[in-house]
Amino acid sequence: MQDVLRPLIVVGGALGLTLAAGWAADRLLCRADARHPETPLWGLLRRCRIPLQVVVAVAVLRGFHEQAHIARDHAVSISRMLTLALIAAAGWLTVRGSAAVVESSYSRYAATAHDAARVRRVRTQVTLTQRVVSAVIAVVAAAAMLLTFPEMRAVGTSVLASAGLLGIVAGIAAQSTLGNLFAGLQIAFGDMVRIGDEVVVDGEWGTVEEITLTFLSVRTWDERRITMPVSYFTSKPFENWSRGGTQMTGAIFFHLDHSAPIEEMRSKLHEVVRESTAWDGRAWNLAVTDTTPTSIEVRALATARDADAAWRIRCEVREKLIAWLCAEHPYALPRIPTAPAPTPPRPRSAEPEAAHVELP
User: Fold this and answer.
1) Domain coordinates of the chain in residue numbers?
2) Are the CB atoms for 254 and 300 separated by under 8 Å?
3) Is the pLDDT of residue 168 over 60?
């Protein structure tokens, strides 16, 4: 009878303590969140409920499984499995807790900061820092799990003795990976590119959507995703339209006839930008920037608050000015001059023809 009751008591007690610990922690965090709504930490820590319950359950089973007399012949194996599970659960709980603390700090900073560029910079640093912390915790947990095996302890001395050689070999083999890793840290703390920045890479314009330790994802205007190694941004030039401010100047070029009414066109441009919601009101301009034997190049400029607005106002100015020229000044549109080709002169004969004389 005791062989049946002891396992039930241990397992039931572990289950009861797990549920009680999870419920108590959740209630305390709910009350703390209600008392301090300005601090999102307590609400974020509620994500740690499941890892906490796993830790409590495994810890209770690890401490009392011998008293339960479950599979006595395999007690050592069961103990080792529970130890491995406890280490893994503790690492999981640590990762969740650190993520909650970091995200809470970023949320409080973003709520009080007024500089959008600085907020994106901090977000990039926080994201990469959290990934580094998670990777370190995973490595430490894996090392702790391996050290539970006596065989791994026995070979520890030889591993340490050859660590220098292994480090050199690993560095050569993982050169690109390590390069991307250090490039990711350089991007995070060097303020080269941030999440939310609008960039142009390989002729493609898009918004930086995700930055990890090894790759970077750019969402293009047509909702495609371009994924590239982060080392690209430390080894090749690229355009960052968000660095130093989001304001931009849009340029629109027209190829027109020499008789185009420039002053009237300038007045029409002013009317178009004043009616446009994409214009930020800073500046506008229209000038003849080049000429050819058959046409002139007219450049219109209009400022906008960001890249999206600059694209919209460029399209709007282009459409409305071309429609206005077609309706009011069609002669100003570029034309292809055509003329009949001159006929070549008739060749003269080498000898003059004999005069034709009619005899009476």
Assistant:
1) 1-112, 117-137+145-245, 248-332
2) yes
3) no
What per-residue confidence (pLDDT) applies to 160?
Answer: 46
Walk across the sheet containing 215-220 and list its strands. Answer: 225-229, 215-220, 204-211, 198-201, 239-240
* E strand intervals along the chain: 198-201, 204-211, 215-220, 225-229, 239-240, 248-256, 279-291, 296-304
Amino acid making up residue 339: A
What is the Cα–Cα distance from 227 to 217, expressed in whole angstroms?
4
Stated pTM of the model: 0.47
Integer distance in angstroms from the first to the last C-alpha of the chain? 160
The DSSP code for 250 is E
Domain 248-332 CATH class label: alpha beta
Comparing 175 with 216, the larger pLDDT belongs to: 216
What pLDDT is attached to residue 300? Answer: 93
pLDDT band at 68 (very low <50, low <70, confident <90, very high): low
The whole-number average pLDDT for the span 24-34 is 76
Domain spanning 117-137+145-245, CATH class: mainly beta
Q: Cα separation of 282 and 271, whole Å?
A: 14
Q: What share of the chain is helix, strand, coil (3-state, %, to 5)?
A: 60, 15, 25
